[in-house]
Amino acid sequence: MPKAPFERVYSLIERKKLLQKVAKENVKIVLKTGSNQVVEFRTMGIQDDFSLEGVVVGGAVKDYEKVTALFYVNGERYFITTRLRKKEGYFVLVNDTQFYRFNRRAAFRVEIPERLDVSFFISTIRNIEVNRRVPVVEFSSGGARIRWNGDKKLSKGTLIRGSLQWSKGKVLPVEAHVVHSPEVGIYGLRFVSLTTVTINRLKMLSIEIQQTVHFLKP
Questions:
Q1: Chain centroid to CA 81: how far?
Q2: What is the pTM of this model?
Q3: Which of 32, 71, 135, 167 makes an SS bond possible with 204, Cβ 3.0 to 4.6 Å?
């Protein structure tokens, strides 16, 4: 199995310094909730145990809901899998040992094993209705590779509209351009017309897929 594109931050001192910097500089934190929402956590302060205090913007979350928190410090990208506690007028992002740093040297692209059901439901190609579900064989937050066994070849620049589908009914609408075909029946796509919300959801989906591939059993 290839090396995971992230590594655990075991040092308690390092984690504390990072969280202090997040609080001091009001670093933007993106959260993916258990209900597959993507919202923003705006930091207001830090507690004695280095849990972060703040408000949630862009959606409603439950007390003690499991979340994945993504943020940047000193040009490095980190994420924590933790819980969000609801208080009077604010939330607490609980400090947790499931704290990871992305390995910037590792490709942020993951091959999708057959045991994972990740697909692209194509609704239109060049604005022509298709309504066809195809497997995703490789994914990153910026694009994907799909397996397309259609009679017609997809030329470079072709606009495809549809939605990424994975897990239990999780869906993310996207638009993409065909950028290349590295082998017969495989096409590389680049996601386009991205909103901030879509970009954040793609980043979170990439984390979710890579956690499953590298850490969870079949």
A1: 12
A2: 0.74
A3: 32
